[in-house]
Write a structure and sequence with these properties.
With about 300 residues, the protein is an all-alpha fold. The chain contains ten helices and no strands. Keywords: Antiport, Cytoplasm, Membrane, Peroxisome, Repeat, Transmembrane, Transmembrane helix, Transport.
């Protein structure tokens, strides 16, 4: 129990949350472009910079940062939960021994499941707010009118039922493999580099963070596309089965996407996603590692966790 409620886990959680908020703020416009490409299927612009130019031209200079606060709030909560759970479980299981790739994957998966179940409502709301006011090419999308985070929660529960806040949970649970794969590769590459040198440089951390995220993102991207559509929840589709997030609807959406756009339709927006997540993850890990190291040094403590 002391490992779960430890000061060290709290430091890792806060550092992970701060790192993710910093990185997401820097690269937020890339996430806006990715989301538009995933949800608005009839948009003709295929590249990240063209979509961003279109958004700025049609909706204003600050449009790429629309929905920043709810996204940052959700991300801060999400990464705090993930890093805290990951480091607590690792401390309990590893107990001062050297970790392994298999253990990192299992711990990352369990931490991801906990994170999804607790934070999915926040992500559903921020997806809606991020796309509100957007000029869509797809006429099947129903517009919304939310005044803020609290109003969005209220309207979704009132109009769609409380379970709508967990739209996209099924693909999200499948997507826990994304951070699990990411942490597995990150911790593995980190261990390999530490065998050859005493300390990792900022560039080392940035590069292995980028490599780990690129592998995880490419492997799980089709399910991320379906997750975005389900979280948005404003498409007029599959009226005979409105249980959004069920296996049946996930398969339906995958089939429709491939039928309309070919297999590459599942990877629409991947360029923007890779740019955004790889750079964001690399910067996040850099801030995270530096912040944890600085905190433990200031407090006169040495991290008990062995890599």
């Amino acid at each position: 129990m002391s490992s779960v409620l430890s000061y060290e886990s709290l430091v890792h959680a806060v550092a992970g949350a701060v790192g993710s908020v910093t990185a997401m703020t820097v690269f937020f416009p890339l996430d806006t472009a990715r989301l538009r490409l995933q949800v608005d299927e009839k948009r003709k612009s295929k590249t990240t910079h063209m979509v961003l130019l279109e958004i700025i031209k049609e909706e204003g200079l600050l449009a790429p940062y629309r929905g920043w606060f709810p996204v940052i709030s959700s991300l801060c909560c999400s990464n705090f939960v993930y890093f805290y759970t990951f480091n607590s479980l690792k401390a309990v299981w590893v107990k001062g021994q050297h970790s392994t790739t298999g253990k990192d994957l299992v711990v990352g998966f369990v931490a991801g499941v906990v994170n999804v179940l607790l934070t999915t409502p926040l992500w559903v709301v921020n997806t809606r707010l991020k796309l509100q006011g957007a000029k869509f090419r797809n006429e099947d999308i129903v517009p919304t009118n939310y005044k803020g985070i609290i109003d969005a929660f209220h309207q979704i529960i009132r109009d769609e039922g409380i379970l709508a806040l967990w739209n996209g949970t099924f693909p999200s649970l499948l997507l826990v493999f994304n951070p699990a794969i990411q942490f597995m590769f990150y911790e593995g590459l980190k261990r390999q580099l530490l065998k050859k040198r005493m300390k990792l440089s900022s560039l080392d951390v940035f590069i292995i963070g980028a490599i780990a995220k690129a592998i995880a993102t490419t492997a799980t991207y089709p399910m991320q596309t379906i997750q975005s559509i389900l979280r948005f929840g404003r498409h007029r589709l599959n009226p005979e089965n409105r249980t959004l997030g069920s296996l049946r609807n996930v398969l339906y959406l995958l089939h429709q996407r491939v039928k309309r756009f070919g297999i590459m339709g599942l990877y629409k927006g991947l360029e923007a996603k890779l740019l955004q997540t790889v750079l964001t993850a690399a910067l996040m890990f850099l801030v995270y590692e530096k912040l944890t190291a600085a905190t433990f040094t200031i407090m006169g403590l040495k991290s008990a966790r062995k890599h």
